[in-house]
Amino acid sequence: MASSITIRHPGPGDLSLLLSGGDDVFDRPVRPDQAPAFLDDPGHEIVLALDSANVLGMASGTILLHPDKAPQILVNELGVAERYRKRGIGTRLMKVLLGVAVARGCDCAWLGTEDGNVAARAVYRRLGGAETAGLVVYEWDDLDDGLPLGGHDSGGI
To answer: What are the chain's domains?
Structure first.
């Protein structure tokens, strides 16, 4: 069955394909208001694993531009439908996504994952990724509720 699975790098004309994403591939249902913007934005990349026209996996990333270094890719997500796991699909998706990043001029890729995400960590190690110890991650959920301490400050740090 794995031989019938293909990896595709969709573009703006592939909206219907992205919208048909499997229920257990993405964290939430694909949003019809966000999917076209995602596909149209050159700063975002996604690759899909397909069995015929059925989306069974995906990997996405954001191209980060810096004034002082080459572009980098932040890998946002890797997801494979439960029934297709442990077949190398996640590894294939990551290889293609990293190849897209190289073609876009990226010289670095990075991501964060949870300590307990054993399957994802195995994929990233298999691809030669180095774990960084001592990294602290900060998260701001619900930014639309306003920033703490009175909102936006255009002053210095």
So the answer is: 2-145 (3.40.630.30)
